[in-house]
Specification:
The protein is mainly α. 98% of the residues lie in helices and 0% in strands. The longest helix has 84 residues. It is rod-shaped, with a radius of gyration of 37 Å.
Length: 86
């Protein structure tokens, strides 16, 4: 009889520990899903920022090209004025 009581107590302890482990696993699963969502959102944000940087770089190159073109035109005008003055 005493062995049966001891055995039942051990089963109850095991059952409580298993329930605790299930609860821990469940909370870890929820935390993992939240972290995956954060990572996904950060990846999307990173892609958007990378695209914005690329667009800014292209815009900067276009502006530099236009400035260079304008400088060449100004240089040509200055050269023409100097030649006409001589």
């Amino acid at each position: 009889m005493e062995n049966e009581v001891l055995l039942m107590q051990q089963f109850e302890e095991i059952e409580m520990k298993v329930e605790r482990l299930i609860a821990i696993c469940s909370s870890l699963d929820i935390a993992n899903k939240k972290l995956k969502n954060i990572v996904t959102n950060m990846e999307i944000e990173l892609q958007e920022k990378s695209l914005a940087i690329q667009n800014l770089s292209e815009e900067r190159s276009m502006i530099r090209s236009k400035i260079d073109t304008l400088l060449v035109k100004l240089e040509n005008i200055v050269d023409q004025d100097e030649n006409s003055l001589q």
